[in-house]
Design goal:
It contains four helices and ten strands; from the N terminus they run H-H-H-E-E-E-E-E-E-E-E-E-E-H. It has 233 residues and is of the alpha+beta class. It has a five-stranded mixed sheet, with no helix packed on it. It has a five-stranded mixed sheet with strand order 4-10-9-6-7. The longest helix is centred in the middle third of the chain and has 36 residues. The chain is elongated.
């Protein structure tokens, strides 16, 4: 008698589902940019599943169908149809579908001007293996600690003092490279106050795994109070 596959299947399913939450899960977004990342992931996942099911269906059909005799002309016509359909039509339709969904999602992640609003700026500098956080127009300099106001878009200007790092707070936004002598900009926003965890997403040496960033999101009023209190300490 064959052993039941129910328990192993349940264990595998639960293991996969456990990755859908937690302080660094892109599938548990807490901001508009992270929500766009999550929707893009689910869209591409759904598309890949559809392609997989289609390929499996064709494979099963090919394995189970009854062979039939074909003339050389018929075989050439079938081969030509498969080449055109599978080699041209299917990739074009797939790419257009992915781009029509992915481009709007990517557009929402860009640091675009906000009508009638000045977007605050925070500078983050990557070091081996720690984060330097500066608030322009103030004397505030933090190490491995980032404070943000909730419900407010903030532009994070990132660069590196040594090697290439990558700034990433998975639940709030996508990732962006931190390159020496170059400044990149990442738009980040949190829906509500809370604590989040960021990390370096680019291998940068032996201390890479410990290059973590604590992110504290305040209400707008508490953030202003924190700025004033910290600046005058």
């Amino acid at each position: 008698m064959m052993p039941s596959l129910t328990l192993p299947s349940l264990i595998i399913t639960l293991s996969l589902l456990s990755g859908c939450s937690g302080p660094q899960s892109i599938l548990n977004p807490a901001g508009p940019s992270a929500l766009a990342v999550s929707r893009l992931w689910w869209g591409m996942f759904g598309f890949s599943v559809a392609v997989l099911l289609a390929v499996m269906a064709l494979w099963i059909y090919a394995m189970r169908r009854n062979p039939r005799s074909l003339t050389e002309a018929q075989a050439d016509r079938i081969n030509r149809n498969w080449i055109i359909g599978g080699g041209l039509v299917l990739p074009i339709v797939g790419i257009v579908a992915l781009l029509s969904f992915g481009i709007p999602m990517g557009y929402r992640m860009l640091p675009l001007p906000v009508a009638g609003q000045s977007v605050p700026r925070i500078d983050v500098i990557g070091h081996q293996w720690w984060w330097e956080v500066r608030y322009p127009d103030t004397d505030i300099v933090l190490i491995n600690e980032l404070h943000l106001p909730a419900g407010t878009p903030v532009d994070i200007h990132v660069t590196s003092s040594d090697v290439i790092h990558s700034f990433w707070v998975p639940r709030l936004a996508g990732k962006i490279d931190m390159i020496p002598d170059r400044t990149n900009v990442l738009r980040i926003e949190a829906d509500a106050p809370g604590q989040f965890l960021g990390k370096c997403a680019e291998f940068c040496g032996v201390g890479h795994a410990h290059m973590m960033l604590e992110v504290q999101v305040h209400t707008p009023e508490d953030f202003e109070s924190w700025l004033e209190t910290y600046e005058y300490e």
